[in-house]
Design a protein that fits this description.
About 55% of the residues lie in helices and about 0% in strands. The chain is mainly alpha-helical.
């Protein structure tokens, strides 16, 4: 989960902006608990596509 769309219950601002101490603490906890949370969905999709490409190449090498 990323903090891009989360809204803080304390200040009603986006958590990603870190307007108050509650936002900053929650954003820090999300990034600490999940290192992939800092990546955008496009970057995650790119990593997934690269993983699939490597798997296909490995499969072709194994059968050849």
């Amino acid at each position: 989960m990323t903090c891009d769309r989360l809204v803080c219950a304390n200040c009603a601002g986006p958590v990603s902006e870190g307007r108050c101490h509650v936002c900053r603490a929650h954003r820090e906890r999300l990034h600490r608990d999940n290192p992939l949370a800092a990546l955008s969905p496009a970057a995650l999709l790119g990593l997934f596509a690269a993983l699939v490409a490597v798997a296909l190449v490995a499969q072709r090498v194994a059968t050849a």
